[in-house]
Design goal:
This protein has a domain of 44 residues. 27% of the residues lie in helices and 21% in strands. It has 2 helices and 2 strands; from the N terminus they run ααββ.
Length: 70
């Protein structure tokens, strides 16, 4: 704020999660596998262009497609 002469801007609660999303994804998969699940990740479908919904920040994250207890 003092260095750049700009007002304070909150980065959001998920700021650090967005910095290293791949690490968080790997860790979540490892945790599920340790619990005995077979994890398959598939990308989310692109949002419908004709819909008038506000964009979701998590739209480009991956979705857990199937969890099967091993």
């Amino acid at each position: 704020m003092l260095k750049n002469n700009k007002p304070y801007e909150d980065l959001g609660g998920d700021y650090f999660d967005q910095l290293d999303a791949a690490r968080i994804e790997r860790r979540a998969v490892q945790c599920l596998e340790q619990l005995g699940y077979d994890v398959t990740l598939t990308p989310l479908e692109p949002p419908n262009k004709t819909a008038n919904k506000p964009s979701d920040k998590t739209a480009n994250k991956k979705e857990v497609a199937s969890l099967q207890n091993v």
